[in-house]
Fold this protein.
Amino acid sequence: MVETRKVQVTGGSTYTVSIPKEWATENGVSAGSEVEFYPEGDSLFLTPRTEEERTEGTLDISKLEGQELVRAVMTMYVSGFDVIALESGRITNDQRRTVRQATQGLVGLEVLEETRDRIVIRDLLDSSELSIHNAVTRMRLIALSMLEDAVAALADLDMDMAQDVIQRDDDVDRLYMVVSRIFRATLRTPKAAEELGLPREVCFDYHSCARQLERVADHATKIAHLTLNIEQPVREDVLDALWELHEDATTVVDAGMDALFSDDSVEATEVANEARESVQEIDEHARTIDELLRELDPARAQMLGLIVDSLSRSADYGGNIAETALQKAAPTP
């Protein structure tokens, strides 16, 4: 329910406005309490000031095992809890190993306490030291290097390189979790956005693009997995076509990211539009490669067709990044 208040002047120069009593009661605000104000454009956000800056959460894991338990820990982390208490009547050794595995896969988490029925995990990173810009930049570098190395592994049938690409996907996933955690923090409190030095809309754009980069890394991993099942060298003309498709896809992703990071809205719009328009040409290029694959053995053609699809989809994700960059460059209502 929207409530309105009339601004008044006290002491001849101070503007005052009352706050709803129901909201004050629910949030522990009373006479003498301190509140914080955060200006954002033409809006002013008010929040109660608290001494305790770290949030704690408790999770019953008595019925959680394996990947379900891993996902539960990740969800608590992304949701923004600084201290995570995992409780059960008796925590099994398998659960302890799973919790350690989940902790190692997340940036900043460390197990602080372990007892028979309780495991306490704490985020040791200072949120003010985290940079969503740096995290997304790092994701860009890793995802695109994975895509290039995946095609190189296919070209040389280098199984060690293919395995390395698969392992690097964990690095991208860790960074994506960090970006998601930071973004959700900005949704909960304007203080988080102020510490980052970025508007919440920009944080949303970064989070959207991080999701696209995570998908590019997934497709690089998929290509690497397919390579592990290929025993005979790929025909040279097919390989050349795949390299060209890779270059096209990488160009779109790079252009989209350049437009996203650009402070010049005119330049960003031009670069992003060019990237989006080139996606259609890449789709046509992919179809010509599919025609080329029809000359091969059906099983081999199907496997290489999946690689063509992964490269084409990577270009689509670059187009999505370019679309986000266009929205970021557009005038603010």
Remarks:
- Strands lie at 8-10, 14-16, 35-40, 43-48, 56-60, 83-87, 109-114, 118-123.
- The mean pLDDT is 87.
- The domain at 130-329 is CATH 1.20.58.220 (Methane Monooxygenase Hydroxylase; Chain G, domain 1).
- The chain has three domains: 8-48, 56-127, 130-329.
